[in-house]
Design brief:
The complex is a heterodimer of chains A (142) and B (77).
Chain A: H1 3-27, H2 39-66, H3 68-72, H4 77-104, H5 112-140
Chain B: E1 2-7, H1 9-15, H2 21-28, H3 32-39, H4 47-57, H5 61-64, E2 65-72
Antiparallel strand pairs in B: 1-2
Helix pairs in contact in B: 2-3
Classes of the chains: A mainly alpha (142), B alpha+beta (77).
């Protein structure tokens, strides 16, 4: 498996195990949507962001140690083509999300609902980004 | 649209002392996985990479890659 495909899977898994539970809590209204600042929301988001950073950091460290030559090699033309395709796919998700969150939601929502909706769209765009990336690598794998 | 690029990289590697995919990749600046994808027809390289591959084997480009106008395309890029 290509080094960059491994990092794509790592990012997808990290998002699933961190932001998955976070958005599940938000959807179940387990975190109150009171006026800002909201310490419980902030704490939950902080734990989620730190957990994601730790998983990705540890994963990259492991991959670098297990295949140092692959890690050192800059992205080649196929990596760059896959990157372009995955980023352009994610862009449409992100721009649609930002229009919804930044233009439409302020008319009927406020506070953490908007913050969480924006976070959700960013995470959705990242899932599309890494999802298209790993799918492209899988399709081209022998 | 029909048509696809086929290649003889596997044969040329064999004829050049069973050169490994990793070595060929190293010599043209791509990963082993990219060479594997090119060799299996799942990825069409850029013109520059195609020329580099031909240069490694010291053969003209058309001896490495051929265009089959009637075949169904399979490569992603």
């Amino acid at each position: 498996m290509a080094y960059r495909e491994k990092t794509g899977w790592l990012s997808l898994i990290a998002m699933a195990v961190t932001f998955g539970p976070y958005f599940a809590l938000v959807a179940m209204h387990a975190l109150p949507d009171a006026a800002l600042p909201n310490v419980r929301q902030l704490f939950a988001f902080g734990v989620t962001a730190v957990a994601q950073a730790l998983i990705i950091g540890a994963g990259h460290l492991y991959f670098r140690r297990s295949s140092p030559d692959d890690a050192r090699m800059p992205p080649d033309e196929r990596d760059q083509a896959i990157m372009r395709r995955s980023i352009s796919s994610a862009y449409y998700v992100l721009i649609a999300g930002m229009i919804m969150v930044g233009v439409m939601m302020p008319f009927n929502s406020s506070g953490w609902k908007i913050v969480n909706a924006a976070l959700f769209m960013i995470v959705a765009a990242e899932v599309v980004h890494y999802g298209v990336m790993v799918a492209s690598y899988r399709r081209q794998a022998s | 649209m029909t048509g696809s690029v086929s290649n003889r990289i596997r044969l040329l590697r064999f004829l050049n002392g069973e050169m490994s995919q990793a070595e060929l990749g190293q010599r043209i600046g791509v990963t082993r996985q990219t060479i594997a994808a090119v060799e299996s027809g799942k990825y069409s390289p850029t013109l520059e990479a195609a020329f580099r591959i031909a240069d490694v084997f010291k053969v003209p480009l058309q001896e490495v890659f051929t265009w089959d106008a009637n075949a169904t395309a399979s490569a992603d890029d």
